[in-house]
């Protein structure tokens, strides 16, 4: 038996998913319409196959953002995006002498932290995950109850 979750919390979960997704949609669309900027940036790090980096990151960002928006396989999408944020921070933003790069590094880590929290609590009431009965954690006042996933 699950503890009822307030509609207000579910609306906040929906808003949080949309806000997270907006960042990845913007980045993915930027790569879609202006791929050369990403390809040149990857080249500056002397990484192999910059076009594949561009296409792969664009597809990952857009696909996972769509999963977050619809609340489908939210936990998996959040884990993938969290790993992506940490890896891109380590690969592309490790020049800590440049304060902008340090801020970008910490921003990526903060996003990963938020995504991991999202993976714990799930998408909330307004999601496909909820419709198909995916397990989730519901928070009400000081109590949390985990409902098992059917999958």
UniProtKB/TrEMBL annotation:
Highest taxon listed in the record's lineage: Bacteria
Signal peptide span: none
Record carries keyword Transmembrane: yes
InterPro entries in UniProt: DoxX, DoxX-like_oxidoreductase
Principal location class: membrane
Membrane spanning stretches: 12-30, 50-70, 77-96, 102-126
Keywords: Cell membrane, Membrane, Transmembrane, Transmembrane helix
Mode of membrane association: Multi-pass membrane protein
One Pfam family cited in the UniProt record for this chain: DoxX
Subcellular location: Cell membrane
Family designation: Belongs to the DoxX family.
Name assigned to this protein: Inner membrane protein YqjF
Natural source organism: Paraburkholderia hiiakae
């Amino acid at each position: 038996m699950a503890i009822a979750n307030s509609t207000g919390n579910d609306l906040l979960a929906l808003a949080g998913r949309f806000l997270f997704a907006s960042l990845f949609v913007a980045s993915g669309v930027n790569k879609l319409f202006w791929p050369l900027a990403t390809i040149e940036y990857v080249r500056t790090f002397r990484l192999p196959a910059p076009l594949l980096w561009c296409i792969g990151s664009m597809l990952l960002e857009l696909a996972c953002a769509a999963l977050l928006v619809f609340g489908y396989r939210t936990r998996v999408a959040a884990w993938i995006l969290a790993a992506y944020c940490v890896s891109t921070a380590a690969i592309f933003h490790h020049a800590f002498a440049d304060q902008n790069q340090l801020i970008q590094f910490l921003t990526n880590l903060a996003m990963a932290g938020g995504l991991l929290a999202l993976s714990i609590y799930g998408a909330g009431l307004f999601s496909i995950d909820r419709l198909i009965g995916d397990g989730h954690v519901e928070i009400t006042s000081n109590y949390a109850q985990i409902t098992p996933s059917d999958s």
